[in-house]
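hey so u asked for the seq, here:
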Amino acid sequence: MAEETDGEEVFLTKGRLEGLSDGIFAFAMTLLVVGLDLPDKSTIVQSTGFAMNQLVSLESDFLHYVLSFLILGAFWLSHHIQLHSVKTIDKVYVWLNLIVLLFVALLPFSASFSGDFPKVTIGAIVFETSLFAIGIAMFCQWWYATHGHRLVSPTLDQGYIRYVLLGNLVVPFISVVGISIALYGNTWSTVVYLTIPVVGYLVYRLAR
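ran it, structure tokens below
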């Protein structure tokens, strides 16, 4: 079954697009754990002290794993909410969705890279740039779908459209702050993502 919009056929139903998106989000969230690297077995010493030292050395990796998993989960929920409001799809929307998924699939590498270089500015910037890209791509996708109610119901509330649009900018905004802090030499700039609930609440209040 094909979906049609403005006279052009897209041989991909919304359900197929949702299935592909859910699969890549799930795969990326699972792949994040690969970034928690243990030392080579030949170097392992069977002692409590050595084991504790290895756990402590994974502190940055664990932080980036948790942050990435939770933020990807929030992106997935937002993506689901957006697709729920979309009534039909076209080629442009499909390609915008693929761009979103491109950056989602890249995040496990970015998180692993940043975790491996916790004391190097570029490590934090790579991670923060990846999250920025996902958020901006989702912003563009939602803007395209809702501009002039192109792919959504004509009765969809403008306040809701604005709320979701602003919500998509929360992570990119925080990412810009994090990148700015990293450029000043603070390699723990990724902790700014802990402010997401607060900024998200402020956006909710602003959009009401």
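The two ends are 38 Å apart (CA to CA). The CA atoms of residues 142 and 190 lie 26 Å apart.
lmk if thats what u needed
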